[in-house]
Amino acid sequence: MKLAASLLVLLAAMHAQVAPAAGVPEFQLVIRNHAFEPAELTVPADAKFKLIVRNDDATAEEFESTDFNRETVVLPHHSVAIYVGPLRPGRYGFFGDFHRDAAQGRLIVR
Questions:
Q1: What's the pTM?
Q2: In terms of CATH, what superfamily is 22-109?
Q3: Per-block average pLDDT, block size 10, for the chain (110 residues)?
Q4: What span, in angstroms and rounded, lies between the C-alpha atoms of 1 and 92?
Q5: Smallest Cα–Cα separation from 103: which of 51, 56, 43, 37?
Q6: Are 41 and 27 a contacting pair, CB within 8 Å?
């Protein structure tokens, strides 16, 4: 019984650490045919947000932005959540490092 209670406390603590932040807006990007859809995404200025990047391709892609300092590999047929911001108003580029010629996009921050 004591072990079960300890496991429940441990699971609750783990869940609290990975639970999504309340009130954080969420935006979707899809990688399809080595390109981002949409290629431009409008997001709010001065607010943290979550970017869900889903890779519909059969090969991995590396989502990267030197403008807002993010880099992560998105496996084929998987999604990743990337927290970004707050950002000032402007345009911020991102690209697929494995297919730079096709996988280009930008955040429009307003």
A1: 0.78
A2: Cupredoxins -  blue copper proteins (2.60.40.420)
A3: 44 43 89 98 97 98 97 98 97 96 96
A4: 53
A5: 37
A6: yes
